[in-house]
Amino acid sequence: MSGKFCVSLTCAKDNTDKATVAFVIANAALGSEKETIVFLSSEGVHLTQRGYADDIHEEGFAPLGELMSNFAASGGTIYACSPCFKRRKLDDQALVNGVVVVGGAKLVEFLSDGAPCVSF
Q1: Which CATH class is domain 4-119?
Q2: Model-level pTM greater than 0.90?
Q3: 6, CA 20 to 30 Å: which among 25, 54, 106, 117?
Q4: Strand pairing class (4-9; 117-119)
Q5: Could you give the CA distance from residue 91 to residue 70 in angstroms, rounded to a whole number?
Q6: CA 17 to CA 11: how far, in whole Å?
Q7: Quick one: 40 exposed, middle or buried, by C-beta within 10 A (0-12, 13-18, 19+)?
Q8: At what angle do helices 16-31 and 64-73 cross, to 10 degrees?
């Protein structure tokens, strides 16, 4: 059984509920002692930018910015799809903690050991 876990997230402010739940699950995986990544693609790459998630707070959950900070502080890694990031002309100097902009091969490498992945 793999000691890894992946959460794939394709949304941000276009679906704040999914974005929030994705990071709740990612934090739970870290709490279960899994090496955990969140892979941001499509609209999800907007979450890489400092300040972007500051006003996202779904009722019943911690604010998204807090969930993301806790994830990074606890050792989680946030991968952002490089082509998606570039297509949206985002600022690589404004990345939140824990973000690494990568190509798809990095995700494939992480998953190649049979790591489970859930998608939002």
Answers
A1: alpha beta
A2: yes
A3: 54
A4: parallel
A5: 22
A6: 9
A7: buried
A8: 30
